[in-house]
Amino acid sequence: MTDQCWLSPQLIAQVQSLRFWVQPGKLEDLISTNLRNEIVMYFHSTLAGVPAEADVLMTSGQLPDDSFTIEQKQAQWVVSAGSTTALLHAFYFFALHYYLGDLSSARTVHRPSQALRMLNQWDNFDGSIERGYAGRSIFYANNHFIGDYARITMYARLMSSIGLNGIVLNNVNVHKEETFFITGEKLQRIKDIAAIFHRFGIKIYLSVNFAAPIQYGDLATADPLIPAVAEWWQRKLADVFRLIPNFGGVLVKADSEGQPGPYTYHRNHAEGANMLAKAVAPFGGIVIWRAFVYNSQQDWRDRSQDRARAAYDTFGPLDGQFAQNVVLQIKFGPIDFQPCEPVQPLFGALRRTNQIIEFQASQEYTGQAIDANFLMTQWEQLMAFDTRGGDESLPLRNVPRRCSPQPEFSGIAAVSNIGRDENWTGNKLAQSNLYAFGRLAWQSDITGQQVLQEWQRLTFADGAVQAVVGEMLTASNQVYVDYTAPLGVGFMVRAQTHYGPGPDDYEFDRWGTYHFADRYGVGVDRTVLTGSGYSRLYSGSNAAVYDNLATCPDALLLFFHHVPYDYRLHDGQTLIQHIYNTHFSGCQAVTQMISRWQTCAGRLPETEYLNVLHRLQAQAKNAREWRDQINTFFYRFAGIPDSQGRTIYA
Amino acid sequence: MTDQCWLSPQLIAQVQSLRFWVQPGKLEDLISTNLRNEIVMYFHSTLAGVPAEADVLMTSGQLPDDSFTIEQKQAQWVVSAGSTTALLHAFYFFALHYYLGDLSSARTVHRPSQALRMLNQWDNFDGSIERGYAGRSIFYANNHFIGDYARITMYARLMSSIGLNGIVLNNVNVHKEETFFITGEKLQRIKDIAAIFHRFGIKIYLSVNFAAPIQYGDLATADPLIPAVAEWWQRKLADVFRLIPNFGGVLVKADSEGQPGPYTYHRNHAEGANMLAKAVAPFGGIVIWRAFVYNSQQDWRDRSQDRARAAYDTFGPLDGQFAQNVVLQIKFGPIDFQPCEPVQPLFGALRRTNQIIEFQASQEYTGQAIDANFLMTQWEQLMAFDTRGGDESLPLRNVPRRCSPQPEFSGIAAVSNIGRDENWTGNKLAQSNLYAFGRLAWQSDITGQQVLQEWQRLTFADGAVQAVVGEMLTASNQVYVDYTAPLGVGFMVRAQTHYGPGPDDYEFDRWGTYHFADRYGVGVDRTVLTGSGYSRLYSGSNAAVYDNLATCPDALLLFFHHVPYDYRLHDGQTLIQHIYNTHFSGCQAVTQMISRWQTCAGRLPETEYLNVLHRLQAQAKNAREWRDQINTFFYRFAGIPDSQGRTIYA
Hints:
2 copies of one chain form a homodimer.
Chain A: H1 9-16, E1 19-22, H2 30-42, E2 46-47, E3 56-60, E4 68-73, E5 76-81, H3 84-100, E6 108-110, E7 116-120, E8 140-141, E9 144-145, H4 149-161, E10 166-168, H5 176-179, H6 184-199, E11 203-207, H7 212-215, H8 227-243, E12 249-252, H9 269-280, E13 286-290, H10 310-315, E14 326-331, H11 346-349, E15 354-360, H12 376-384, H13 399-403, E16 411-415, H14 431-442, H15 448-459, H16 463-483, E17 521-522, H17 541-547, H18 557-560, E18 563-564, H19 575-598, H20 606-638
Parallel strand pairs in A: 1-2, 1-3, 3-5, 7-10, 7-16, 10-11, 11-12, 12-13, 13-14, 14-15, 15-16
Antiparallel strand pairs in A: 4-5, 4-6, 8-9, 17-18
Helix pairs in contact in A: 1-3, 2-3, 8-9, 14-15, 15-16, 16-19, 19-20
């Protein structure tokens, strides 16, 4: 039976005891109908005929479209929203927090921090999921639509229950089959899926292939400035909107890692995006344009290139040139979803371009649903980063709304971590990342601790289990960082799989991800004077802070500096000793997590207990490999023994 | 049109001018019939009605079965052989050397050095070839028999023309489909293939799956000591021999790299092999048992294991325990077909076990039909190695006949390098390796230079091209060694593909192939006092020569010793400088090869010219990557600059 995640049977049972009154009238539409359905069919609550008989009054109010209020008036809860979608979100919010018991009786306004709150499915039509670790796609198998609408409905509910409002249904890498999603029988099936998400206030989007006019065989070019190309897209996308009026728009990964794009025709990315934007504008659609563009044919010998600069160099000069319904979707960091990397300097620098911050709930580089890793810990730190560095504070979390000319076309997105596994996320504990992402999108200043406490209490019935989970996940992100690549140095993972250590796997490859370890030291010199000058791209005092070895935060030391092994970190220990210490302690922490988890046996369903236990055991093996390979790798270079005499294999 | 390799149109034209008289009578069998066919149909020569009218008399004589003589009596050549197969071999030998013009008029006895002269096809039923670089299989495609009997006939002719007499038709890694080659409709098709090879005096063999009794669903075990298992094999193999009377026997890769074997049942390899041997003995068949057995789940941290010891430790104690129709097929070196490794110490040590030496004509680790590499240079050195090391000299080439209790069940084998490419071997120059292997098998003391001169003259019509090819191939093997992993240190190739540099790709993996490079030095300590003791396994003075740093040949230095970078080689240069020098010179040599080859333009067919040119250009790119990655890899450890100030990327 499929896991209900945070919408647990206990939660449903408690909400069931309430009677709801939903205001009839102007809110009557598909979403409103669905809301009543949810209350009655899914939560098994009853609808009151008149307001006086209700425990909860749900009404429309004079509020922005995306907002709602909750307050307690005598014995009644009053929930008021600016739209049917907001009322649906309000209902789930009420249900979850009623169960948690943390609703304030005073009137509280809830407005999402981010306008676009999206998940990106990297699902392929063949059923595989790129960088997915929870089974095959819930949408597709063997180049067919599975048509498991019950499962899709559950997913839409899970998304809506944490306030998400958009989903991209296919992989950003658009292969041959998916190129044809925008037409014919395939589009009919997409429409069926869209209808489900629409009931839950979620718009669907499709990743499109920039070379589609050629792939279709209709045109010999995809040059965005050739009228026939623009007209082709206008026709095709008009058809999509006519069939799916609530269609959100398209997502494009262009000129990146083998994907086609405007560069093929010597056009820039604004020219490419704007052409598509014009096609979807009449229907209120948007074009989400990914900023993940870099030279993936780099020569490791060429130090003049720095992949970290790529997005900035490409998109910085285009600020202000994108159409108003284009949104640039920018990965949080300059490289690629690493466990430890700084915030992308485009954030705070772009001021005339709509922006989405992109995270990855799927744990590509962060443990692959084997290693426990509560990603919110990292997201929280990133979102708090002051992108302006000084005088005028602008934390990353405020950038999308503040720096986007059309704030309604801004927000955050995450690569989804779900698949056909019964528990959705492979590892039960990884549900926390999906939950956290939704909460972060809605309330971007929420703390990791608050999210975690909500999730653990919503998910596990037993208090002792909640406590152990809370403790484990609180530590998990740092533990993972500790036993993997040190201090922001980046790629030391195994090539291709991106799981487990491969300290030199990328060192002489074409991906621009190097650590430059040698007998003297390690790290990437990105300083202005002697390095790539990447540090200069940051605003305000950030540039100097990163550029200066003395002020650069230890956690990012090797991202910005090439440092000798005997360099002393801020806590006084040497770099090499820090590497040894964190690798021993990180690995040991996993062993302790197993012991702690074993105290939970019998306190939760056996399948859930074993699901986590087996993954922790695999994680312990992984952590041991990381510990020993990284320690040995550096020991062989540095020749400096561990000050505590622990075993480092020669 | 498919390349005729060394049986070139010029050769055929010259032989065509001769009239042959083939003695009728007791030699009349299928092979003899085929011989007449070859003379008339393929070589377009004519048959003389009476001896007096012939230029060449072909007769039976009082000779061992596998031998023939050639002599000139007045105007007539007289070729005499001990069997029809030998007469066929004699015919081709005569044809080739008549064309080359190097036949002696004095009576010369030709007897093959090796009894079994075999090729191993690593072809899978799906048409792929494991470690094949010349296209797909000529036998199989998509789990069907292609039935291209013309192509198979050409292959049989090529093999027979250089004296080969055995072929294993499927990959040593026997997958599901190939398990069923020994029965039913598949065996019928195998029979058709066998009939072709039989006409050319070549026996066919099949690789079998030791777990076949289970795979077939007939038995629950494959334990060789359980009578039902032995009986199962007796029934199945008796069927094979009844259908294909000339069937040679079976090849088994057991207990290696995931293949099943006797160890599953706590039986030793003699028990496993002897069970099968009993099944084929009544029909004169043999069991070829591969000695490539090692722990492929090694822990890189565990220095107590040394993969180089594996075959010796497994099979040394079993000497004398194998049935008389079992042949142990032993890779030439202790690791795995490396460009530079010592001779396997089992050779010379085993004295009561039939032996086949295994080479790899397919260039898995030696350039993959991209890089020019005349492997005979290495084979010649290996074959000359004195396995006894001293008093009683026993070069490797004499080991199979001398140390096998049944010399007729001994010989050499090579993994074939042919595929469906028009030129058979992907790279035209790689035909030389197929030719060389046949010649080496027949005449094991032949020199590389002699083989090369034969091949270049048989293959290219133009004298200038012959000269350039001779020059390039003469240097090619050392050039390849120069720019790849230094001084016998072994695996520094990219994982999985085994092409191109990946200096650390195997360093922390489970395959037992480590180089142990650190800031002080590099190499595997296999000495008795401080290392794995592997050096001790060699006979006579070899043990001490290898064990002693001062006497160990430079070319194998890092195979046997862990050596500091400033260690001085026999020529006085330091290890690190040697690494730099050879990598610069090896890479440069490839550039020179391209220039030399370009002088051949217009002097040979355009397709052949371009075939080689494009591969040389790809090789140059590969050599440059090797040069720079290996130099940088060691420079980062050693910190010692190149004494000549050439560019080493930091």
